[in-house]
């Protein structure tokens, strides 16, 4: 008998009809003899609605109270789902994150899971229940306050529980059939990836592929939990994220042959949420980069690519450019301007009309020419490259925002990733 953790996102439980559909699916797993732990997100866009409500009564809601409010979304879906399962003749019990033993640090709005003690979940399973757990939340070990894990955090709850319970698989259900070689809304010929390693999936997630949260993949890699990303609207096999074999009871004919050939490039990700900031005329002396990036890190801003060049204005000076989330742009400029005299730079240029394209593939380690193929494809499309950065298994370039779709399409074809048939179906919802 196997233990399966199943996570259903907001669009899979958006209304009563969806909850009933998901309940049927869970009941059929139960009838097939699996132990099932379910992690749910709030119904539909309820988390956003609750944030709007909070904002209406207070422009800066106290973080403790905001977490208390937001966790209510998942409490609703867990209880409703347990009722729907009971209505099908299977017994189910719902648990808040705190009851399920999800222990976090004390930070509100983006708490980190530090331990999972799922004693009550184990007993519920032993007593023959389906255990339903509210995603995205936990309880602080020190303050005993209720915390949330950050937007999209239910994926992390699911993987953490799967790890703590030593589950055979963590299934993440959403409204698409899996991870695709590119976003099907941009590249209709994108194909579903049958299997991908943790490191590649982490690079895809960090490069803008929104299907899985980066933290959840990191967690899965550390604990070795296989993830199966699939649609709750179809019975198709989705994408397996694992470095090992697909566990025996879950192997199908299609997943068996897919382990045969591993493409050099697994996928092309893109990101439209970043901006480029250039500090022009920084004195070319030791310590200036340290000063600049300390200021940025004090603001808790995550930067991505960094490029330093001889200044366009003066050879004794350099220009330092980096990319950062667009939402942090104003904060970064303000912090740097306030230390302008001490750093000694001339001025700041800010550009949020950029796009980032990344190609990811384990095969890059051993195949020369991967970079040349990308640059050739972009040049054939007359796409100008602004910044470049690489890791062992990723190449990222910054382009103009308006060139990004063409660039993604061209790169996808250049690596032979196009499929003859349309594979991607978006079944519903507004994303996750
Ligand atoms: N409901 C939360 C959100 O919308 C958590 C999640 O969906 O995973 O961010
Ligand atoms: Mg959601």
Automatic annotation (TrEMBL):
The keyword Transport does not apply. InterPro entries: AceGlu_kinase-like_sf, ACT-like_dom_sf, ACT_Aspartokinase, ACT_dom, AKii-LysC-BS, Asp/Glu/Uridylate_kinase, Asp_kin_monofn, Asp_kinase. It comes from the Bacteria. ATP binds at residues 7-10, 185. GO terms for molecular function: aspartate kinase activity; ATP binding. GO terms for cellular component: cytosol. Catalyzes the phosphorylation of the beta-carboxyl group of aspartic acid with ATP to yield 4-phospho-L-aspartate, which is involved in the branched biosynthetic pathway leading to the biosynthesis of amino acids lysine, threonine, isoleucine and methionine. Belongs to the aspartokinase family. This is Aspartokinase.
């Amino acid at each position: 008998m196997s233990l399966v953790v199943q996570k259903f996102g907001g669009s899979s439980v958006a209304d009563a009809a969806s909850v009933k559909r998901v309940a049927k699916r869970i009941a059929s797993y139960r009838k097939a003899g699996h132990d099932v732990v379910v992690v749910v997100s709030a119904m539909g866009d309820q988390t956003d609605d609750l944030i709007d409500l909070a904002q209406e009564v207070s422009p800066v809601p106290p973080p403790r109270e905001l977490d208390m409010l937001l966790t209510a979304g998942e409490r609703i879906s867990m209880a409703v789902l347990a009722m729907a399962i009971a209505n099908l003749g299977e017994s189910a019990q719902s648990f808040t994150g705190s009851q399920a033993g999800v222990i976090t640090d004390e930070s509100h709005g983006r708490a980190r899971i530090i331990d999972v003690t799922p004693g009550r979940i184990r007993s519920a399973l032993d007593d023959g229940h389906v255990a339903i757990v509210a995603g995205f939340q936990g309880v602080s070990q020190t303050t005993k306050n209720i915390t949330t894990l950050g937007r999209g955090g239910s994926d992390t709850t699911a993987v953490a529980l799967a790890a703590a319970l030593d589950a055979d698989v963590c299934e993440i259900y959403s409204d698409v059939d899996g991870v695709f070689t590119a976003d099907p809304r941009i590249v209709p010929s994108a194909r579903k990836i049958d299997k991908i390693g943790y490191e590649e999936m982490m690079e895809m997630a960090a490069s803008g592929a929104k299907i899985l949260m980066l933290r959840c993949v990191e967690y899965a890699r550390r604990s070795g939990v296989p993830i199966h990303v699939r649609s709750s609207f179809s019975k198709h096999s989705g994408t397996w994220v694992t470095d090992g074999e697909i566990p025996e009871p879950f192997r199908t004919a299609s997943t068996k042959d897919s382990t045969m050939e591993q493409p050099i490039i697994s996928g092309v990700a893109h990101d439209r949420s970043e901006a480029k900031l250039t500090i022009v005329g920084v004195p070319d002396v030791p310590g200036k980069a340290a000063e600049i990036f300390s200021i940025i890190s004090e603001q808790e801003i995550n930067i991505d690519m960094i490029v330093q060049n001889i200044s366009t204005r003066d050879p004794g000076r350099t220009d330092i450019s980096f990319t950062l989330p667009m939402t942090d742009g104003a904060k970064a400029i303000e912090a740097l301007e306030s230390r302008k005299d001490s750093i000694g730079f001339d001025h700041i240029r800010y550009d949020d009309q950029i796009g980032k394209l990344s190609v990811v593939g384990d095969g890059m380690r051993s195949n020369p020419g991967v970079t040349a193929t990308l640059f050739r494809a972009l040049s054939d499309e007359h796409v100008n490259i602004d910044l470049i950065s690489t890791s062992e298994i990723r190449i990222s370039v910054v382009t103009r925002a308006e060139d990004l779709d063409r660039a993604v399409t061209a790169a996808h074809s250049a690596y032979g990733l196009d499929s003859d048939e349309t594979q991607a179906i978006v079944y519903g919802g507004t994303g996750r």
